[in-house]
Amino acid sequence: MSQARRHLGSFDGILFLSALALQLIGLVVIYSSTVGTPSAGAFQRQAMWMALGMTGLLIVLVIDYHTLAEFSVVFYAGCCVLLLLTIVFGRVVNASKSWLGAGGVQFQPSELAKVATILMVAAYLGRDQVRGLGFVRFAAVSGIVGLPVLLIMQQPDLGTAATFMPLLVGASFLAGLRIRTIVILTLIVALALPLVWGHLKPYQKERVKIFLEPTRDPKGAGYQLIQSLIAVGSGGVTGKGFLSGTQGSLQFLPEQHTDFVLAVVAEERGFIGSALVLALYFVVLTRCIATARGARDRLGAFIAMGVACVYGGQALINIGVVLGVLPTTGVPLPLLSYGGSCLVSTLLGLGLVLNVHMRRLVN
Amino acid sequence: MRPLRDPRDYQEERRLGARVTVIQVLFGAVLAVYLMTFWYLQVVRADYYRRLSDSNHLRRVTIAAERGLITDVEERPLVGNRIAFNIRLDREKTENLDALLPRLATVLNVSEATLRDRLARARGRPRFEPVVLKEDVDLKEVAWIEARRLELPMLSVEIESRREYPHGDLAAHVLGYVGEATEEQVKSDPEDLFDLGDIVGKAGLEREYETSLHGIKGWKEVVVNSHGREMQEVGEGRPPSPGHALRLTIDLDLQRTLEEAYGEELGSAVFLDAKTGAVLAMISRPAFDPNVFAHRFSQDVWQSLVRDPRHPLQDRVSLSKFAPGSVFKVVMTIAALEEGVAKPERLDHCTGSWRFGERVFQCWGIRKGGHGWVDMRQALIESCNVYFYRLGNEMGIEKIAKWAHLLGFGQATGIDLPHEESGTVPDPDWKAKAVPRDPIWHPGETISVAIGQGALEVTPLQMAVFAATVGSGGTVLKPHLVQAREAREGVEQGNDNDAVLRHLPLHPETIKVVKEAMWGVVNEAGGTGAKARIEAYDVCGKTGTAQVFKVSRDIDADKLPKDKRDHAWFVGFAPKDDPQIAFAVFVQNGGHGGTVSAPIAKAVLERFFAQREGLKGGLSVASAAPPR
Fold first, then answer.
1. Spatial separation of the C-alpha atoms in residues B567 and B453, rounded to whole Å
2. Cβ pair A170:B23 closer than 8 A
3. Is B480 a residue whose pLDDT tops 90?
4. CB B135 within 8 Å of CB B83
5. Are B38 and A278 inside 8 Å of each other by CB?
6. pLDDT tens digits, residue range A287-318?
7. pTM of the prediction?
8. Which residue of B has its CA nearest to A132?
9. B162, B179, B477, B554: which is deepest, by most CB within 10 A?
10. Which H helix or E strand runs over A342?
11. ipTM computed for the complex
C-alpha cells in the first residue's frame, strides 16, 4: 500500500465536511443579508476566496507538516515583514491600517500571521525532548506570539491582536506552564490593566463601557449590540426564512455579513439554525482536538491544538459578541463571516490539522 | 500517541493528554453556555424580540380619505375637492444645487432665498424625503417640469387633494372652512377619524358635519430600512373610504340673489322655508374666502382676518346678537292678547312722549306731535312707542319674558352649526344674576324692553324663526341647513317632522291682528316696509331699528368709520295667508329698517316666488304676478 493511498485513507472527512458545511451556510447567509444593499456582490467575492482558500488547504495538506515546521521561521519572518509593510503602506479602513494591496487584491497580513505563528510556536514547543514550561521558555513563547501582536496593535487592530491570545494561553498550558508562573503572570497582568486602559483609544474605551451598560447609548455604540439581540431573538425557533430576515438586509444591523453574520443566521434560520452552527463548530473543534490526541508526535499535537485555540477561540469571541456576553471586538466568525483573508487563513489552519491527522500513523 | 522511549516522556504524554482534555471541556462548556443563551433569546424571549424587530422595520402609513362634497338643494356644487400640484426636489439626486436654484427660482417665480429657506428647514429630515419647493403650482409650471424629466431628474410633481370653494366667499359662514386638526380636536374625536395635522373642518358645516365629511382614512403597511426609506408595501392595508356628501337646503340661485342684493352692507340675513325651517339662503357680511384656509396659508392671511376690526370670520346670523328694536312689538302684541291684558280695540293716545316717574320716554312720532289716538293694529303698523310703553307697563316683565321665551328668544334655535348664540331675554331673575352691581329690576327697564331695547338681545336667526312662527300661526320650527346626507348605508333624508319644535296654541284672533298689522306695514300707504311690497304676494313684515350704542360691545367703534346710524331690521314672511318663506334681514348701521333692509328682502322674495311659479307653470317673473 503506497504512502499516498494510506494518507488518503487517513483523511479526516468529518472535519473537512463540517468545515465545508459552515462555509456553505456562510455563503447563503452572505447572499441573503446583502442582496439589495450596498454590500451586494459580497457573495461572489466570498465564493472566489473560498476557491482560493481550498487551493491553499490542498497545498498545505500535501507537504508533510514536519517540512512546514522546518520552514516555520521563514514563514514567521515573512509575515512579520508583511505586517511592517502594512503599518507603512497599508490602506486605511475604519481608522486602522490592516490591509495590504497587491495588484487589485486586498488582504490582511495579520490573518496570515496567525497560521505562521501557530506553526512557529508548535515548532518551538513541539520538540520531543522539551518537558515543562519554565519562566524563560514561557518568555520565549510570549516573544514569538508577542511580536506579531505588537505589530498588529500598531495598525491598530485590537480585535485581531486579541485572537492571538488563546494561542499563547493554550500552548503555554499544554506545554505545562507551572502554577507559580501562572500566579506571577496574573499579578503582572492585574498591575498592567490600568496602564492598558490608559492607552486605549476613546472608541475602544467606549466599547467596553457600552458592553457593561448597553442602553447607555442606544442610537450610538450600543445600537449594534441591541440590534444584534433583536436579530437573534426575533428569529424564534424556526427563523424568518431565506431572504426574509429584516435586521440584516434592511441595514438595522451593521456588519451584517461580517462580524454579525451569525445574528443573521439566527434571524433567518431560528434556534434550529444557530444550534446547527454551534454543533458544526463543536464537531470541527472536537476533530481538531482528536487529531492532537492522536498525533504522531508533540509537533503535530501542538499544531492541531494551536489551530483549535486560535480559530476556536476566535469563534467563541465572535459568538459571545453576537450574544452580547462579550464587548464588541470586530472579530469575524471563522468560515462563516464574509472576508477573504480570514477565510483563507482558517482554511490554511485546517489544512495543517488535516495534514497532522493524515500523517498520524508512523511508517 | 507513539510508543515512548523514556518513562518521563510517557508521564509527559499522559499529562499532555489531560491538558488537551481540559481545553476540550472548556470549549465544550462555552459552546453549551452559548447554546443555552441562544435558546433563551430565540425560544423564551422570541415574542419580545419579534415585536422589537417588527417595530424596527414596519411602519403604518395612513392614506387620507377624500372629503365629502357639499352641494346646494339642486345638487350644484358648493364645496368640492380639486387636485393641486406641488413641485418637489429630491436632494439625493441633486448634484449642483447652487447652479440649479437660480434657474428654479426663475421658472417657479419664487425668490432664491425662499427656496433656500425651504431647503434649510428640511435639513433635519432624511435626505431621501423630497422637499416641497412650491405648493399649488399652475399647469404651465407642471408642464415645464414634466418636459425636463431627463434634464432635471431631481424634480418631481406631487399630487395633493385640496378643498375648493368654487364660489369664493358665497355663503362662507354657512360652509365654514378647513384646517389642520389641533390637539384639542383630536382629543374630542370619539370615532378616531383623524390625527394631529389632518385636514378637518374648523367652522360652519365643514365642522358640524366633520364625522360625515371626513371619511375613513385607509392605511398600508410598509417595510422601511434603517434610514426610514420605504422599501416595499406589505400585503396588509385598508383603502380609504371617502367622506359622505351633504346636500344643503340652500338654493344657489336664491343665495346669489341675496349676495347681490346685499351689496356692500355689513350685517346678515337669513331666509327660511316657512313650512320646514329649511334655510334657503343665508349671508353674513363682511365675508371671507374659505379658499385661503384650504392650504397651509401664510400666517399673515390668518392674522389679518383675526385682527380685522370688522370680524369677518364671525357669523352674524347665529353668533351675533342685537337689540330687536320695534320688531319686538310683535311679541308684545301676541303676549298682551294671549294673556288677556288688552283687547285689539284698546285705544291709547300718543303725544310723542310719556313721562314715567322721573324719566321721559320718547316716541319717534314726536316730530309730528305724536301718533294721536291709535288702536293695537295701528300702533303696530306705525310702531308707536308710547302705546307699547304703557302696554308693557300694564303687562309686567314676567309676562313679556314668558312669551319671548315661548316664541323662541333667549335660547338656541338648534340649527346645525357648531356654535350658536342664545341671546338674552331679561327679567328680574336674570338681572339678579347678570348685574350684581344693580340686582334690582326697575319698572323703567320693562318699558325699554317693551319696545325691544334695554338688555334684550336676539340673533337674526331667532328673528327669522320667529317670523315663521307668526306666519304659521304658532308653530316653532328648528332651522336646518342639510337636506340630505349620505349615510354609511344609503341616503339619509332630513326629516322635516323633526323640524317642528312645538306648537303654541295661539288664538286665531291674535294671529289675525298681528298678520293684518304686518301686512299693513308693507302694503298700506305710508307703511315702514313699503319697499318690500310685491304685487299679489302679500308680503308681511315689521321693521325695527336697534340703537348702535347698545351693541357697541360687538364692534370696536374706535376702529370703524364714525357711523352713528342705527342698525336696521326687516323681519317677515310671505304670502300672508299661506306663508312659504320667512326671513330676517339685518343691516348694521343701516339707519331705518325699511330703507335698506326691505329692498334686500324684496329682491330675494321676488326670485323665490318666480322660482315657485316657474316650477308650477313655467312662467317668468313678470308674467307670474297677476294684475291685482
1. 12
2. yes
3. yes
4. no
5. yes
6. 999 999 999 889 999 999 999 999 999 999 99
7. 0.66
8. B12
9. B477
10. helix A340-358
11. 0.90
